[in-house]
Structure formats: structure tokens, C-alpha cells
Hints:
Helices cover 12% and strands 26% of the residues. It is α+β, with helices and mostly antiparallel strands and 197 residues long.
Amino acid sequence: MLRADLLAGPAERVAPLLLGAVLRHDEVAVEVTEVEAYAGPRDPASHAFRGPTPRNEVMFGPPGHLYLYFSYGMHWAANVVCGPDGTAGGCLVRSGRVVDGLEIARERRHGAPERDLARGPGRLTQALGLSREHRGTDLFAGGPVRLEEGEEVPAADVARGPRVGVSQAADVPWRFWVAGSRYVSAYKRSPRAPAAL
């Protein structure tokens, strides 16, 4: 059973456990197909690398809360906080498949094809209707935004590779996705990252 205490481990161990879980906001639910781990002060690509700020303070709280940030001045990105309370860590929910509330998600995404409704972090939060007001939500408190049990993804079906678009620690293989899924975003290396190893 998916519980907040199971998210208390290091981000890179928690991230693949989120594959197949369902992130729900009221009538719309998305099955998670792709995540990235960010390990706080151990990870120069993490928002929490330099310590707590008003923006990232929820990452330093208990696991199982929602860390939302505004990305590129355009869209929200959703992270599940992990690690022990007081030790920052998070798993960016990069992509998913809408499994409930398809018509609502399609309306929010202006008629995008089903495959693209939640394929990418900004599309996912838009499909779910998540924004600033949901930052810090306890995903296990039974509220309108919650993380639910889904179909477990066998370890043999979990692929891994470098994270998308980060310029620091660009080759760390902490992106995890369901191998063969159509609902996974394309890999794009940051032009600011050093040449691949």
C-alpha cells in the first residue's frame, strides 16, 4: 500500500516506486509514467541544493507533500516530497496518462490528443488543474489532491537515464520511466550542460 512513510527514503530510491501510482485532483486522475529524482543538498540540480528558501521550504518538510514551482515563467511543475522530515528531496512527476476525468483534462488542455494531455510536467499540472494554491498539500490527508495506489510496475519494466534539461549533474541517471509507454516525454539535454560523458 502506498503510504507517506514509504516515501521517507532517498529520492533516487523513491522515484521508481511512484511509477504506476495515481496523482488525483478531484475528478481528474493521472497514472504516473515518468519521474525524476532530486536529492536536495546532495544534488546540484535540485532546487534545495543551497538550503531552504521560501520557494522550496516544503521540500524540507515531511514526505508525501506536494512541492509545486513555476517553471520558465510558463507552467507549474509537480513534485512529491520524499526523504526524512528535515532532509530535502523530491520526485518531479514528469509525465502520465489520464485515467479519469478525460473530458475535463482535454478541456483544460485545449483539445490536445489523449497521448499529450499529461506528457510533460507543465501539461500534467494543467490537465490536473494544479497551481500555486496546491503547494504544500499533504497528498495522504484525503483532500482533493492526493496520491493513490495504482498498478505496480515490475522492476523489469522500469527504464532509467539522465534527467531532462538540467545543466548540473546532467548525466546522473535519475530519470525513471515505464519502458515502452507512449505517455513519456522526449529526452532533451540542456544546451548548458557539459558534453555527455
